[in-house]
Amino acid sequence: MKLHKMINLIRNENMKISHRISTWIMVGALILIIIVAGLLYRFAMPQGDSTGWKEDLTKQNQSSQTMINTAGIPQNTKEIYVKQIKINEYSIKNDIQPVQANTLWGFVNLASGFIMFISLFAIIIGSGIVASEFSGGTIKLLLIRPSKRWKILASKYLTVILYALFMLILAFSFSFLLGGILFSFKGVNQPFLKYANGGVQEVNMVAHIIGIYALKSVNLVMMVTLAFMISTVFRDSGLAIGIGVFLLTM
Q: Which pLDDT value is given to residue 9?
């Protein structure tokens, strides 16, 4: 009996070490992806002209006005053009250049697309955090303790969510730092312009980017929750990862 308990303890420790290693590998993979994307964005992609942006906005407004005057355009489409014209006019009047692709905030905004990779990593963690306990037999060490089953599952689910949150913060922070190094920190105080309440408003760029991350994270939470549920019910991490990745790519 003691030998069997000792074997389970050794399995539990080995599993914890394996999980830590895989977690840090995913962190390193995310950082590597951001670095490669930043280098490609800086040196392989054509850099736009940042001097004639006012002329470009003026031409864009003329084109938008032509579309507004075109017969048969739906009213909601016209409203979109009108709002964009107002924003462009505000930019020209107050000398606020729109966010360019080859700038700090342009790259940070691009990095929000890497949330898909974070979702993939979180699905893998969420799929294995419970199923691996059953496959390794270490679940017995948890169930014999006084903690209730729902508390054990809730703590594991919360761990996965916190891991995903950590990866989101890492992606934002590292992309900001790398974007400043590659494209300079000039324009770090640049506001984001949006049309609301009948006028153009200046919004803090950090708050705007965080809003983008939050909206894109809804899908992340849904996929992680689904993978965790499948892993818990069927005790099969492969099935949970397969379904989670399939729905994520769809």
A: 42
Higher pLDDT, 6 or 125: 125
Q: Can you tell me the mean pLDDT for 129-155?
A: 64
Instruction: Give the pLDDT score at 79.
Output: 87
**H or E stretch at 202:** strand 199-203
Provide the b/e sequence for 193-221 (b: ≥16 CB within 10 Å). bebeeeebeeeebeebbeeebeebbeebe
Per the CB < 8 A criterion, the answer to whether 97 and 50 are in contact is: yes
Two structure tokens written together for 87 = 């924003």
Per-residue pLDDT averaged across 183-207, rounded? 87
Amino acid at 72: G
Structure confidence by residue, pLDDT tens digits, 15-67: 454 556 777 888 899 999 999 999 988 887 766 556 778 888 889 989 988 88
- Residue 224 makes CB contacts below 8 A (sequence gap 6+) with 119, 122, 123, 126, 160, 161, 164, 244
Cβ partners under 8 Å of residue 228, min gap 6 = 126, 127, 129, 130, 156, 157, 160, 240
* Residue owning tokens 């089953």: 149
Phi/psi of residue 70, each to 5°? -75, 135
Angle separating helix axes 104-111 and 149-183, nearest 10 degrees: 150
Q: Which two tokens stand for residue 153?
A: 């599952």
**CA dihedral over 220, 222, 227, 229, signed as positive or negative:** positive
In whole angstroms, give the CA distance from residue 247 to residue 250.
5
The alpha-carbon radius of gyration of the chain (Å, integer) is 24
Contact status, residue 139 vs residue 236, Cβ threshold 8 Å: no
Which residue, 95, 93, 94, is CA-closest to 51?
95
